Coagulation factor 5/8 type domain-containing protein (Cercophora newfieldiana), 295 residues
Amino acid sequence: MKPWGPLSVPSLIFLLSFPLFTFAAPIRAIFLFKDVLKSNTTALKTSSFNTVIIFGIGILSDGSIKYYSNTPGSSDITVASNGTYVGGPALSEKVRSFKVAPTTIDRVEISMNSQHVKNLMTTPGPNPNTPLYQNFLALQEAWGLDAVNNDDESLYDVSSTVAFAKMLGRAGYKYTIAPYTNVRFWQALVTQANSGLAAAEWLVDRVYLQCYDGGASNDPRSWEGNLGMKVVPLVWVTNDSKPAFSTTAAQARSKFAGWHSRSALAGGGYWNDYDIEKMKLSYAEYGAALKSVFP
Ligand SMILES: *[C@@H]1O[C@H](CO)[C@@H](O)[C@H](O)[C@H]1NC(C)=O
Ligand SMILES: *[C@@H]1O[C@H](CO)[C@@H](O)[C@H](O)[C@H]1NC(C)=O
Ligand SMILES: CC(=O)N[C@H]1CO[C@H](CO)[C@@H](O)[C@@H]1O
């Protein structure tokens, strides 16, 4: 009897496991610099993006978590403290709504700086009974989060960052990085955080590489070689603060296509929604540029 036809069971298993690596869904990301209570959620949910990364989150010395909303007229608020979500229902409903149909978004991340990470990993440490751990659990529950993004541009301390990443992994988050420089630090972090894990289970499962401003000369192919994983290059949309780094949707499409042809990428992404709205640009055009290169 050959119930599996001409394919043996081992080769069938091999074929079934292969698409995990060859056909991983391409990433189409955008960083949310604008206060999520003020940005155009409908446009974000209907412009082909599948990942949104909320900027910026920080932790305080007591392990509380703050949302720095970076938008004129908005104030920074504490969202989790003492193991409880305290950001209010309007904010939690708004963040949860990103993944509620109709939408193309299936992953929501929060982007953090490195303030207090080292101190808190020393005392009280990365244990589940700490306020920090409990606060991340509460925030994940309230906002329906998938990952924490590390946008460290100052600390670069490998051991405390690995401890923090592993703590978040135990709390149910994936960990992602948004480097622009210091490749040796990121290489050590990725290697140590993913040590012993199969590719499908990597804790650090995404790299959003800044290819603008301080990272303008970054080459995605060389970062892929150094980190041993595919990257998602980021470009800055049209902006009047540093116009030299402005990228139109058409320019973004050709940059992504050029990089992708030199070395297969995991996808592409943008910094940031605030400028799309301020400069009256089109979410649909920027999303379509990503979709055409990373269908
Ligand atoms: C938000 O985006 C949608 C779809 O792109 C658009 O129709 C709508 O006018 C926008 N709303 C505001 C307030 O700009
Ligand atoms: C934190 O929670 C504990 C236990 O629920 C409570 O006793 C304490 O007063 C709380 N502290 C603050 C600052 O809210
Ligand atoms: C994200 C960002 O830096 N946006 C800037 C774009 O330009 C305006 C005007 O200069 C700034 O206010 C924004 O902060």
Notes: The two ends are 41 Å apart (CA to CA).
